[in-house]
Every structure is written in structure tokens, then in C-alpha cells.
Specification:
514 residues; six-stranded antiparallel sheet; alpha+beta
């Protein structure tokens, strides 16, 4: 049933719509710089008419976003082994492809300071997946954040110019523009007080809760200066490729034919060696024409200016100079390269902490799609034991990672084979799981072999084919030991108990899985 927005809904919708519109032009400008489509408003010097359509492009804006964004990679969630919330969260990540979508949210946040992830149940009848994760940039979404709790109290997702989704506690409203005003076309009960929207912000501050973009005023100013410098180089190169000369003391008659028609200057220069001397009518002196080559302007001032601009850009963005196309006089040493990346690594580590909070919020929003509100309190407490895991932004080499892993295991031998030790060797979550499965398979075979050997070692009665009768306590002990070996081999609790003749045992919760 179509209805009008109530006062609270109208207030929230108006506030968020105005924010998107107010920031739209600035955000589009940042994206144009990223796409290398922004044009200079002021060149500052004259260029030849035939070079007015010359376009010089520089990709520093994209570089300022891509370099740190590529180094911030979440490899999964980590927590206590066997944690049910962690297991379900890992399944949901695979089901919704959330890890790939979240990478796009982080990248968009670096471009325009913030992006937003929305979580909604899909319409299976319409061919949609069961759970939908939608990522929108700052030109298509925004949210209202409580300044005291830092929680999202309302959010707006723009689907198209005539359709929007307004997210509120316990309900999501589908808004449509009809007759020049917005109305509620449909309502979807969510069953949770959570507003299913997670903001991803780049370097948020108290004054800027939605963060600051990597493509800021300083970056755009440096890019404009760099493009002007490259244009001057291009103009200089054109004059350099077409040498200019001057003919001194030449009589004007050398440039006119017998009929008084002016000779093409290029033909005159071609016949310059044939121009005779003449007598100056005023002084009476003989004047001999002389041809001189004009000295071309040097490229060095432009190159030095471009290098200076690149250093300013490096100071504001922490992007290493080597990645800006600036050639150093001497090759940088390994220590110098690492030192040049210290600022960039610090930026990535700090930003990973901010994105870690967003990942936790997004995880809770995903889990709320299938858990009722009364269960979310317990899940929220359980999430305190789970944390997002990010790759090392320093991008160490495999050799250095192996060396660090070996030293770690040597210092802490009890942790050998643990997840933490395997991560020190540079293995990601998937590789750690595969490695542990392989080790468990080897250990399982060994334990099974021990069980078989224990069974075959039972004493036999001499002179007869009958098995020696053991004391009941000894028999019970042997069965329990065999049960433990079978469990270590991967046999389920009930099957192992039945095999050793201990059926009907009651196992503790959490110890019945194979």
C-alpha cells in the first residue's frame, strides 16, 4: 500500500538526500581525476594553435588510491577453533562473495572518503540470491551516524533516479518518486533493531566522521602543476624538432623575385648560400648576409620542476617516488627503498584498523539476515572473540617470511604446527586450512596404526587359540585407550564407542564431532 512518509522518515530522507546532492559535484570531480578525465581550467601560458588539442595525461590520482588500497587485504576472519559463529560467518562470506565486494568498498572509500555496504534478503522468486550485499559509493548512498554511539541510525541507498531504499531500525522502506514527491511504495520488516548498513571510511576524524579522500585538494593541485609542466615540455619539444634560424644582414630583395612577388621563406633559406653581398646605401659599407642557428631551450628546467612536484606529491601521499615515474640519479638501495615505504606502510596499518571495525559491523549485519534479534545479543558477544585478519602491507618476500617463521618456531617450539606459526611463514587462511588437514591426515594414520597394534598386542593363552581373560578394569582401560586413538584418527564418537564395545556412552557437548 502506497503511503506518504511520516515526519521522522521525511526528516531523515531530506537530510540524507541533501547531503548526497551537496557532495555530488566534489565527489564527481575526484572520480574524474581518478579516471584521468579532468581538464585544466587554467594553463597559464600560450601554445601554438596547432597544439591546442594536445592532451597530456598523468595517472597520479589513480596511483594515490591504488597503491595503498592494493596493500590493504583482508584474508578472512580468525577466532577460537570450532567457534560456531566463525564457522557460519566463513560460510556466509563464500555464499555472498563478501570478501570481493568488501575490497571494492575499501577502494571506493579511498577515492571519495567513504562508501557503504547494504545487506538485504533477496527475492528468490525473482531469481535473486537468498542474501544480497550491495556496495555503493558516496555519490549513491549515505547514512546518519549517532555522534555518541557511532552507530548507524538510518541509511539511504539510491537505486536509480526514481527509486531509493531507506534503511531504519526494524524496517526497510522502498521509496519511489511519484508526482514529483517521494512516497513509500513497499515496506520490508527486518526483525532487528540493527540498521543493515556499514560505512567504510578512509581516515575518519571527529570533525570528519565520513573520512577524507586520498584525492584531496593537495593531490589535485600537484597533478594540475605536473600537467602544465608536461605541456611546456611538449611545446618545447615541438620547437626543438623544428630548428629555427635567422638570416642577418640580408637585403630584402633576396626574398622577392624579378616580378616583385615574395618568395617562400623556405625556398629562400634553401638558396641562402647563393645570396650575394650588397652595399649599404647609408654607410657605403659592404654587408654580407650571415645565417645563424637559434639555440634551443633546455629541457632541464622542466624536468627539475616535474621532479620537485613529484617530491611534493610524495610528501602528501607517501607514494614512493619510484612509482611516480621520477628517475633517480643513482639506483636506490634495498634499505633506501624500505625507508621510502615506511610512511605508506604506516598509512596502511592505521587504515586497516579502521576497516577492521567496519568488517566486524558488516559481519554482524550479514549474520542478522538469518538470526532473530533475540539471538543477536549472544552473537554480538561471540563476535568479540573474532577479529578480521589483514595481510602484511609491507609485502615481505617469501624468503624473508620463511626466515621469520623459522625464528618464531625456534623461539616458541610449543607453537610449532599452530595456525599462528603457519601464518608467520606467510600462509593465508586457505593455505593454513589445507596444511592442517594434511597434518591431521598424517597424524590420523599414525593413531589408527597405534590402535591396530594395541589390539593385536593383547596377550594370548599359551597352548590354546583362546584369548587370555583380562581383569575387568584392565579390559575397560584398554577399550578407553583404543577409543581415544580412534577419535584422534578422525572416527566419530558414536562409531568409535561402538567399535570398542563402549556403546551408550554420553559425550560432553563439543566433543562429539569427528
Amino acid at each position: 500500500m502506497v503511503r506518504a512518509l511520516n515526519d521522522d522518515e521525511l526528516k531523515e530522507h531530506t537530510e540524507m538526500t541533501k547531503r548526497i546532492e551537496d557532495k555530488y559535484r566534489r565527489n564527481k570531480l575526484k572520480l574524474e581525476y581518478y579516471d584521468m578525465k579532468a581538464k585544466l581550467d587554467f594553463i597559464g601560458f600560450s601554445i601554438p594553435d596547432d597544439m591546442k588539442d594536445l592532451e597530456s595525461v598523468i595517472g597520479w590520482a589513480a596511483k594515490s588510491v591504488n597503491v595503498p588500497s592494493d596493500r590493504i587485504r583482508r584474508t578472512g576472519f580468525t577466532g577460537p577453533e570450532g567457534n560456531e559463529t566463525l564457522v557460519r560467518l566463513t560460510e556466509l562470506e563464500q555464499e555472498t562473495e563478501f570478501q570481493r565486494l568488501e575490497a571494492m568498498a575499501r577502494h571506493s572509500a579511498a577515492q571519495t572518503s567513504c562508501s557503504f555496504a547494504f545487506f538485504t534478503p533477496g527475492d528468490i522468486g525473482a531469481g535473486e540470491p537468498e542474501k544480497i550485499v550491495s556496495i555503493k559509493d558516496a555519490t549513491m548512498a549515505t547514512a546518519i551516524i549517532n555522534p555518541r554511539t557511532q552507530q548507524v541510525t538510518a541509511a539511504l541507498e539510491v537505486l536509480d533516479r526514481n527509486t531509493q531504499l531507506l534503511y531504519r531500525p526494524f524496517v526497510t522502506l522502498r521509496l519511489e518518486r511519484r508526482g514529483g514527491r517521494w512516497v513509500v511504495a513497499d515496506e520490508y520488516e527486518t526483525g532487528t533493531r540493527r540498521v543493515r548498513c556499514t560505512p567504510y571510511t578512509w581516515r575518519p576524524e571527529l570533525r570528519r566522521p565520513f573520512g577524507s579522500a586520498r584525492i584531496n585538494r593537495a593531490v589535485m593541485g600537484h597533478i594540475d602543476r605536473a600537467v602544465r609542466t608536461i605541456l611546456r615540455q611538449e611545446v618545447n619539444a615541438e620547437f626543438y624538432s623544428s630548428p629555427r634560424g635567422v638570416l642577418e644582414d640580408a637585403h630584402k630583395g633576396a626574398f622577392y623575385d624579378k616580378s616583385g612577388k615574395r618568395i617562400d621563406p623556405l625556398r629562400a633559406i634553401g638558396a641562402i648560400w647563393g645570396i650575394p653581398a650588397y652595399r649599404d646605401m647609408e654607410t657605403g659599407d659592404m654587408r654580407t648576409p650571415a645565417f645563424k642557428q637559434l639555440t634551443q631551450a633546455s629541457f632541464q628546467p622542466h624536468s627539475e620542476l616535474l621532479r620537485s612536484i613529484a617530491m611534493n606529491f610524495h610528501a602528501d601521499t607517501d607514494i614512493p617516488l619510484g612509482q611516480l615515474g621520477v628517475v633517480q640519479d643513482n639506483p636506490s638501495s634495498a634499505d633506501a627503498i624500505r625507508a621510502a615505504e615506511d610512511g605508506l606502510i604506516a598509512v596502511c596499518v592505521t587504515q586497516s584498523d579502521h576497516f577492521g571495525y567496519s568488517s566486524r559491523s558488516a559481519a554482524l549485519n550479514m549474520l542478522s539476515l538469518e538470526a532473530p534479534d533475540e539471538e543477536m545479543d549472544a552473537i554480538t558477544k561471540d563476535m568479540a572473540k573474532i577479529r578480521p585478519k589483514f595481510a602484511n602491507p609491507a609485502t615481505p618476500t617469501p624468503g624473508s617470511q620463511a626466515d621469520a617463521g623459522s625464528k618464531f618456531v625456534t623461539a616458541f617450539p610449543d607453537l610449532q604446527g599452530s595456525d599462528l606459526a603457519l601464518e608467520r611463514f606467510g600462509l593465508d587462511s586457505d593455505e593454513v586450512s589445507r596444511a592442517k588437514e594434511h597434518m591431521q591426515s598424517k597424524n590420523g594414520k599414525s593413531a589408527l596404526q597405534q590402535a591396530l597394534e594395541a589390539a593385536s598386542a593383547r596377550p594370548q593363552a599359551q597352548g590354546s587359540g583362546q584369548q587370555k581373560v583380562l581383569h575387568p578394569l584392565e579390559e575397560q582401560k584398554l577399550r578407553a585407550e583404543t577409543l581415544g586413538l580412534l577419535r584422534n584418527a578422525g572416527v566419530t564418537a558414536e562409531t568409535a564407542a561402538s567399535t570398542v564395545g563402549l556403546g551408550g556412552l554420553t559425550f560432553l557437548q563439543g566433543n562429539t564431532d569427528g
